[in-house]
Amino acid sequence: MSLKHGLLGLLNYGSMTGYELDKAFKDSLSFFWQAKNSQIYRELDAMERCGWLTSERVIQNQKPNKRVYSITDSGKEELTNWLSSPESDIADAMRIRSAFLMRVFFAGERSIDQSLEMLRTYREQCTESSKGMSAAQDIISEYGAVVGDDRKAEYWKLVALYGEVFYDASLNWADKAIALLEEMKR
Amino acid sequence: MSLKHGLLGLLNYGSMTGYELDKAFKDSLSFFWQAKNSQIYRELDAMERCGWLTSERVIQNQKPNKRVYSITDSGKEELTNWLSSPESDIADAMRIRSAFLMRVFFAGERSIDQSLEMLRTYREQCTESSKGMSAAQDIISEYGAVVGDDRKAEYWKLVALYGEVFYDASLNWADKAIALLEEMKR
DNA sequence: TTAATCATGTAACACGTTACATGATTGC
DNA sequence: GCAATCATGTAACGTGTTACATGATTAA
Fold first, then answer.
1. One domain, residues B101 and B91
2. Do A52 and A115 belong to one domain?
């Protein structure tokens, strides 16, 4: 149910259209959760039906009409309840799900050179992603200063810091893996 | 399509029933990919229909009858092709998907103490998981020695090493996060 | 006697992805 | 003239989860 709660969290900052939510999602939550607009619209529909949101149609001329969603008291309550019971998501965070690791697992079925190539590509991507997360923290700091909510910005930065730590660890692992395979070649 | 390829990889080691595949999956691939038996049976069905597998019914007395699956040449080809084009899974490995981080993102909506409690639970879980992955490497070493396939065992250990590195990095992040929140309280 | 192991599945639902449709306005 | 932005969605499909059903054998 994380998509629903992500949307609730964003709407708790202020009312928005589905289109704006999609963009807000991409600009903030997409570091750790991804969603397509088709799914967002579907979930908004379901959330409205269960009373967490209300929507009103706004007629615009020279632009397509839009539907503005607002969180209800029931929605705020749901958000609070969700934030108060993190157990299942902590358990979930202990699960790794990676098709890439499945390839490493079966790497014995092909040549060492092919595996090395894969690992080197992976390594490069980790480097880039780590840089991106490092940059994100600076952007969040600036943004936090502009909107004057340093406290919230600290949490946002923590999330980006997790990203950096994660990609750095993956990078270090890749280096070890590459070294091991090079050793195996001799 | 990772579940399909995981099953192909296991069947490439030798023919098995759905039940045995389920157990083999839990004992090896489940560190980085999870699947329920209901899904495994469904996928086996689909894979047989597309010619990657064949199955034969074995009648047993005093035990339920069983269906033994074997990989076909077409299935082996598919496995090889899959192993040769890892690009999309490398890209996928760069994506973080974590409901737990969503909670950290929205942690500004509740008390610091509540967040601290969540992070401490998370931290404990990381410690345990890291130990589990460390132990897994020893078990794999022994197992590799027994079955006499050290080369494959090296890759399996690499996967477990990734797990250890991942949980250790998460743990270090949690420590930083906890320190930051304790600072915020003052 | 109770739980675990062996062994197969079905049905329904939840969540995620891909592809498509519409159509005006604005900036390069 | 072409791409991007604004703004909404539908349809179909793919993947993952939950709950259930069956029924014999074996070990605690």
1. no
2. no
**CB neighbours of residue B37 within 10 Å:** 14
- Note the pLDDT tens digit of each residue in A150-186: 999 999 999 999 999 999 999 999 999 999 999 999 8
Q: Are residues A90 and A109 in the same domain?
A: no
Q: Which nucleotide is nearest to B64 (CA to C1')?
A: C7
| DSSP summary character for residue B98 | -
Nucleotides in D strand less than 7 A from protein CB: 6-12, 14-20, 22-26
Q: Who contacts A3 (Cβ-Cβ below 8 Å, separation ≥6)?
A: A33, A35, A39, A40, A43
Lowest mean pLDDT segment, chosen from B22-31, B36-45, B139-148: B139-148
Tell me: do B6 and B47 sit in the same domain.
yes
pLDDT band at B61 (very low <50, low <70, confident <90, very high): confident
Domain CATH for A82 = 1.10.10.10
B67 and B117 fall within a common domain: no
**End-to-end CA, chain B:** 50
- Domain limits for position B65: 1-95
CB contact under 8 A, A158 and B109: no
User: How near does any CA of chain B get to the CA of A93, in Å?
Assistant: 6
Q: Is the pLDDT of residue B148 over 90?
A: no
- Let me know the angle formed at the C-alpha of A107 by A103 and A113, rounded to the nearest 5 degrees: 115
Q: Does B26 touch chain A (CB under 8 A)?
A: no
In this predicted model, what pLDDT tens digit does every residue of A47-106 receive, in sequence order? 999 999 999 999 998 889 999 999 999 999 999 999 999 999 999 999 999 999 999 999
- Distance, in Å, from the CA atom of B87 to the CA atom of A142, rounded to the nearest integer, reads 35
Assess whether B136 and B152 both reside in one domain: yes
Torsion (CA) B163, B1, A168, A170 in degrees, nearest 10: 40
Contact B100, A90 (CB under 8 A): yes
